[in-house]
Amino acid sequence: MSSPNSIVRFRRLRRTTNLRQLMREHVFSLDDLIMPVFVEENISERVAIESMPGIYRYPETQLTDYVRSLWHKGIKAILLFGISHQKDKEGSDTWNPQGLMARMIRITKTAAPQMLVISDNCFCEYTLNSHCGTTGNREVDNDKTLANLQKQVVVAAQAGVDMIAPSGMVDGMVAAIRTALDAEGFTHIPIMSYSSKFSSSFYGPFRDAVDSSFKGTRDAYQIDCANAREAIAESLQDDAEGADILMVKPGMAYLDILYRIREASLKPLAVYQVSGEYSMIKLAAAAGVLDERAVITETLLAFKRAGANLIISYFAEAIAEWNKP
Ligand code: PBG
Ligand code: ZN
């Protein structure tokens, strides 16, 4: 048996709350959080998303009030998703200056001018087959989608968006978007790329959220969940193309990827705690199996520990409410 003074005593710094707080290596605050917001056209009341308790699809008529309420709770950044009723083969509503994407940007910026408004730039909520781009003969046509994405982001910028967040895993999307924005004088608008986005079953409840009839797979453009090296290469490519912020999505099951990208790039890094992660915690807490607040805190600290700087989470609004006096 070792003598008392040869024992290395980690417990020395864990004895009291004050000591433990002094020793804390990571924190998160509302400064780091981005709240996703779902907006559906042609509805008059908000619709509860059954698979995501506490999350709603908002009509445009209630968007002003909702965004102001988020701002007053202390939310400083939102990520907009539109649920279109004007779907076509290409998702052309996304580059219509009177389309849903442009309208929801204008409404939110007018409602809360200081709120950082980010658009999720993709096509899946606007195409008839719900793919993240325009479908050619059989597959999603990468390069045609790039051209459409360029039109979409210019319209979003003209509508007043603060940040562009392309989520379609289109090869070359960051370079194409940067070129299009710069050509129209939007050199100041940053791009937060969904740079390492996996083809994940954790997106299940999101499909419910966006009312997607999508039964297919995005395996042909999102990353295989078995692949780490490829995921690093994806983010480094977007870094090289000029992405201002990189992203890993989903979060909890991909902390190794977060950590490795944090080591490989000097760009700010975002993580997306996706719908399935949200629902797992909400449903387990509702069943009395998990302590909701403690588990949420633990997951966000894990993201920070792994190297995330920004966190996109459906819990952001609830966390803002925790801080209420
Ligand atoms: C689609 C998109 C998805 C999410 C954000 N943008 C779903 C998908 O790729 O099928 C997932 C968000 C979530 O699950 O919370 N471009
Ligand atoms: Zn998409």
Q: What is the fold's blueprint, element by element?
A:
Blueprint: H1 17-23, E1 33-40, E2 47-48, E3 56-59, H2 60-73, E4 77-83, H3 100-111, E5 116-121, H4 142-158, E6 163-166, H5 173-183, E7 196-197, H6 204-209, H7 229-240, E8 246-249, H8 255-264, E9 269-273, H9 275-286, H10 292-306, E10 310-313, H11 316-322
Parallel strand pairs: 1-3, 1-4, 1-10, 4-5, 5-6, 7-8, 8-9, 9-10
Antiparallel strand pairs: 2-3
Helix pairs in contact: 2-3, 4-5, 7-8, 8-10
The chain binds ligand PBG and zinc ion (ZN).
Description:
This protein has a single domain, classed as Aldolase class I (TIM Barrel, Alpha-Beta Barrel), CATH 3.20.20.70. The longest helix is centred in the middle third of the chain and has 17 residues, at 142-158. The protein has 325 residues and is of the alpha/beta class. The mean pLDDT is 96. Helices cover 38% and strands 14% of the residues.
